[in-house]
C-alpha cells in the first residue's frame, strides 16, 4: 500500500510554568492509503498533540511531515486542510454555536459540492437532512459528532484525524459511530488516524496501532499482533485494563 | 411564572421606559411647549405651572423644554460615544486576543495603566486641557471608555480561539478576517451589548458631570449637567431648576443600568 502520510522524528515540548512537558519525543509513523491507524495511550501521553502536529495546528520543534512524499512541515493549517481534516473530541465545541449546521458543514466543502451529495452523505451517516437547519445545541451528542464526520468527509480530504471522537458519548452511540465509520469506509476512500485511550475500541476499527507513553511510541504493529502478542509491559497493561473495563 | 419569564417581563418594562425617554428627547421639538432658549424677563424663576410644567430658570427659560432638548445632547452624546467605543474597543480587543504578540501586550498594558486612575479624573484632566465643549467632553471620556470593550472582547476572543470550531474553520481554509467576523464577533455580541448597556449610565454620568463642572457642554446649550450647574447658584430660590434636570439624569441612568443588569442576569440564567 502506498504511504500517504509520514511523520519523521517529530518532537514537541510545551512550557508549563517553569517546567517543560515533552509531548512528542522522536515520534515517527507512516499512514498508508486507505488505512485506519489507531493511536492509543493514557491521557496526557501525547496522542492529541501528535494529531495537532500532523494537522499543522501546532508546529513541531523538529522533525518532518510528508504527504504523498512531499514535505509539508510548517505548512499553515489552512493549506493542510486541503488533504486532511480533523474530527474533535467535543462535537458541540467543534461547531459554532450560533451557526446552523448547513452553513458550518459547507464551510469546509469545495464550492462544487451539490446539495444531493450532502444529503446522500448525511443519509450514509443516518442523519436526516432537516437537521441541517438546526444549531449544534439542538442536536444530540451522537448527531453532532456524525455531523462533524460529515463535514470532514465532505471537505474532500483524504485523511481524517479523529481525536477521541467517542469519549464524550455513551457506549451505544460510541458503537454506532464505530459502525458508521466502518460502513463509510466501504463506500468512500479515505485514510484515518484514530486517537483513543480505549484500546478495545481502536482494535475494532483500526488495521494498525501505535501505543504511546510519555510522548514516545513504545510499540507499533498490526492490531492483531499487538493484541495477541504485545511486547512492551505498558501495552500489556493497556490491554489488561481494557479487559477489566469490559467485564 | 418562571424566573426567566419574570426577568424577561422586567427587561421589556425597562426597555420600554428607556425607549420612551429616547423618543421623548428625539421628538423634543414636537413635545416641548416652549422654546428652550427663549428668555423672558416676565417669567424668571416661575414655579411649575400649566405653561411651564417644570417651572422656569433664572433667565425665564422653560425648564421642561430644556430638559427635553438637554436629553438630546446628553443621550445623543452618550449613545454616540458608547457606539464609537464599542466599535473601536471591540476591534482592538478582537485583534489583540486573536493575534496576541507585542501589540497585544503593549495595548493591554496601556489599558491597565489607564484603568489604574479613576475614569473621571482622567476625563477632567483631558477635558480641562481641551477647554470644554461637547466634543472635548466626549473625547475626554472616550480615552478610557474603549478599554472595557477591548478587555471584554480580548478575553472572550482569547478563550474562543482555542475552541475546536475555530480550529475547524482554520482547517477549512478560512482567512483570519473571516474567522474574526463570522465566528468570533457573532459570539461576542451578546456580552458586548450587555456591557454597552451598562456603559450608557456611566457615560451619561461622565458627560453630565463634566458639564456640571463647566468643562463639558458650554452655555446656553441645553444639557442636564450644565443646567444643574447653572441653577445651583439659586437653588434656594428655585429648587425645581436643579431638581428636574437632576431627576432626568437619575431616572435615565437607573433605567439604563437596570436594563444592562437585567439583560446580564437573563443571559447568565
CATH topology of the domain at 1-83 and 160-166 and 191-247 in chain A: Rossmann fold
Oligomeric description of these chains: heterodimer
Q: Roughly what percent helix of chain A?
A: 25-40%
User: How many individual β-strands of chain A?
Assistant: 10
Structural domain count of chain B: 1
Given the C-alpha coordinates, what overall shape of chain B results? Answer: elongated
Main sheet characteristics of chain B: none
Q: What is the CATH topology of chain B?
A: MetI-like fold
- Biggest interface pair, counts: A-B, 27 and 15 residues
Q: How would you characterize the largest beta sheet of chain A?
A: 6 strands, mixed
User: Low-confidence parts of chain B, pLDDT < 50 over ≥5 residues?
Assistant: none
Unreliable stretches covering 5 or more consecutive residues of chain A: none
CATH homologous superfamily title of chain B: MetI-like
Can you tell me the CATH architecture of the domain at 1-83 and 160-166 and 191-247 in chain A?
Answer: 3-Layer(aba) Sandwich
Strand content of chain A: 25-35%
CATH architecture heading of chain B:
Orthogonal Bundle
Task: Indicate the CATH class of the domain at 1-83 and 160-166 and 191-247 in chain A.
Answer: Alpha Beta
Kindly, what is the distance between the CA atoms of the first and last residues of chain A, rounded to a whole number of angstroms?
A: 37 Å
Amino acid at each position: 500500500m502506498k504511504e500517504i502520510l509520514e511523520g519523521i522524528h517529530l518532537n514537541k515540548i510545551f512550557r508549563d510554568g517553569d517546567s517543560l512537558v515533552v509531548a512528542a519525543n522522536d515520534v515517527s509513523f507512516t499512514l498508508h492509503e486507505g488505512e485506519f491507524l489507531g493511536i492509543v495511550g493514557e491521557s496526557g501521553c501525547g496522542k492529541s498533540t501528535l494529531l495537532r502536529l500532523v494537522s499543522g495546528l501546532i508546529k513541531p520543534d523538529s522533525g518532518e511531515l510528508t504527504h504523498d512524499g512531499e514535505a509539508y512541515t510548517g505548512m499553515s493549517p489552512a493549506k493542510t486542510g486541503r488533504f486532511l481534516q480533523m474530527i474533535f473530541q467535543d462535537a458541540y465545541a467543534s461547531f459554532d454555536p450560533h451557526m446552523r449546521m448547513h452553513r458550518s458543514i459547507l464551510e469546509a466543502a469545495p464550492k462544487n459540492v451539490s446539495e444531493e451529495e450532502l444529503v446522500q452523505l448525511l443519509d450514509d451517516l443516518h442523519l436526516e437532512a432537516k437537521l441541517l437547519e438546526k444549531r449544534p445545541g439542538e442536536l444530540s451528542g451522537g448527531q453532532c459528532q456524525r455531523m462533524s464526520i460529515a463535514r470532514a468527509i465532505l471537505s474532500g480530504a483524504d485523511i481524517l484525524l479523529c481525536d477521541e471522537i467517542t469519549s464524550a458519548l455513551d457506549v451505544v452511540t460510541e458503537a454506532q459511530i464505530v459502525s458508521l465509520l466502518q460502513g463509510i469506509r466501504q463506500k468512500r476512500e479515505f485514510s484515518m488516524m484514530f486517537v483513543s485511550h480505549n484500546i478495545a475500541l481502536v482494535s475494532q476499527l483500526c488495521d494498525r496501532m501505535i501505543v504511546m507513553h510519555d510522548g514516545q511510541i513504545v510499540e507499533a504493529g498490526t492490531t492483531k499482533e499487538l493484541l495477541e502478542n504485545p511486547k512492551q509491559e505498558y501495552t500489556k497493561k493497556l490491554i489488561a485494563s481494557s479487559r477489566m473495563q469490559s467485564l | 411564572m418562571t424566573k426567566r419569564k419574570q426577568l424577561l417581563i422586567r427587561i421589556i418594562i425597562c426597555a420600554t421606559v428607556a425607549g420612551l425617554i429616547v423618543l421623548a428627547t428625539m421628538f423634543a421639538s414636537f413635545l416641548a411647549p416652549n422654546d428652550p432658549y427663549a428668555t423672558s424677563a416676565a417669567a424668571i424663576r416661575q414655579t411649575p405651572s400649566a405653561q411651564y410644567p417644570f417651572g422656569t430658570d433664572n433667565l425665564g427659560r422653560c425648564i421642561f423644554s430644556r430638559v427635553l432638548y438637554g436629553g438630546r445632547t446628553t443621550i445623543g452624546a452618550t449613545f454616540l460615544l458608547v457606539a464609537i467605543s464599542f466599535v473601536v474597543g471591540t476591534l482592538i480587543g478582537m485583534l489583540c486576543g486573536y493575534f496576541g504578540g507585542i501589540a497585544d501586550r503593549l495595548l493591554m498594558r496601556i489599558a491597565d495603566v489607564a484603568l489604574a486612575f479613576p475614569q473621571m479624573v482622567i476625563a477632567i484632566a483631558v477635558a480641562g486641557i481641551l477647554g470644554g465643549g461637547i466634543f472635548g467632553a466626549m473625547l475626554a471620556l472616550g480615552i478610557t471608555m474603549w478599554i472595557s470593550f477591548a478587555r471584554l472582547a480580548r478575553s472572550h476572543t482569547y478563550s474562543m480561539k482555542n475552541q475546536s470550531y475555530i480550529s475547524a474553520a482554520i482547517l477549512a481554509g478560512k482567512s483570519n478576517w473571516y474567522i474574526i467576523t463570522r465566528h468570533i464577533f457573532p459570539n461576542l455580541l451578546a456580552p458586548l451589548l450587555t456591557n454597552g448597556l451598562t456603559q450608557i449610565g456611566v457615560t451619561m454620568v461622565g458627560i453630565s458631570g463634566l458639564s456640571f463642572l463647566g468643562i463639558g457642554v458650554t452655555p446656553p446649550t441645553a444639557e442636564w449637567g450644565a443646567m444643574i450647574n447653572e441653577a445651583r447658584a439659586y437653588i434656594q430660590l428655585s429648587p425645581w431648576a436643579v431638581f428636574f434636570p437632576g431627576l432626568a439624569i437619575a431616572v435615565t441612568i437607573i433605567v439604563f443600568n437596570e436594563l444592562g443588569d437585567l439583560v446580564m442576569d437573563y443571559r447568565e440564567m
